[in-house]
Amino acid sequence: MIDVQRLRVLTEVARHGSFSKAAAALLFTPSAVSQQIAALERTVGTDVVVRSARGVTLTEAGRLLVEAGETISAELRHTEAELARLATGVDTLTIATFGTGGRYLLPGALARLAAEHPEVEITVMEREPEHSLPLVRSGAADLALVYEFDRPLPLDRLTLLPVMDDPLSVVLRRDHPLASRKSLPLKDIADQRWVFGCSKTAAFLHRHAEDAGISLRVSANTTDYFFAQALVEAGVGIALIPLVALRKTPSLMAVPVERPRPTRRIGVAVAERVRSRPPVATLIDALRSAT
């Protein structure tokens, strides 16, 4: 029989790409991690990792075992939570969310959740989608508010329920020569000085510029759309900002990008095993009704 603890060790090795980093995360010695992996390989009768000077990667068998380990871990977390609820009468709900979506959508939805399920203790964690999805898969979070932009998310055994489209606009100072336009094609503004508010929108603009044979002029790189808009307001450049992060200020204008308009698709990622829980169902309905 496959040992659940050894699956946990393999999952940490896969996450960190090395025995030593996995050992640090697990509070083991690297030797103990190596022994656990060797014992797992003896049990399944095949290699589960490939060792090299660059680190450790999974074999096909290793990938199957990590998927199984994540599923088992999530089921155990879910069972532990249910047992705790039965023992104490206290229910819990953990939500992972990206910052701008959480700011725009969560307060109203959480107010409804609190009104309908006052017994539920709520925990909110701010995470980008690439970090929140593993939390939902492992059971460390019950659901995640996420977005897709420019490419699909790797859902891997999760369901994505659509919440809203989040189109991006060009934000300029009101006195900018282009601020009076009804819409703007990206090709007309590619030569402007840019303020980036997110690495993903920066990557999108760089790809668009490369396709057009243009080199972007970048004034500022930030990871905060609100900081980026403050820099636009100061005259540093222009920015590409999603709807949920737009600041309402008289000194700025948000001009839609012409079609095909870049758009983030916001949704709720959830595992089917928890989707029917009353607090989860209530929160999902509140999020999907908020727009």
The helix/strand series, from N terminus to C terminus, equals: HHHEEHEHEHEEHEHEHEEEHH
CATH second-level architecture of the largest domain: 3-Layer(aba) Sandwich
Which spans of ≥5 residues are poorly predicted at pLDDT below 50?
Answer: none
Number of strands: 11
- Describe the sheet with the most strands: 7 strands, mixed
The proportion of residues forming helix, as a percent range, comes to 40-55%
Domain HTH lysR-type: 2-59
Keywords: DNA-binding, Transcription, Transcription regulation
Pfam families: HTH_1 (PF00126), LysR_substrate (PF03466)
GO cellular component, one term: protein-DNA complex
What labels would you give this structure?
291 residues; alpha/beta; Arc Repressor Mutant, subunit A; D-Maltodextrin-Binding Protein, domain 2; 3 domains; seven-stranded mixed β-sheet; two-stranded antiparallel ribbon; 11 helices; 11 strands; globular; WH-like_DNA-bd_sf; DNA-binding transcriptional regulator, LysR family
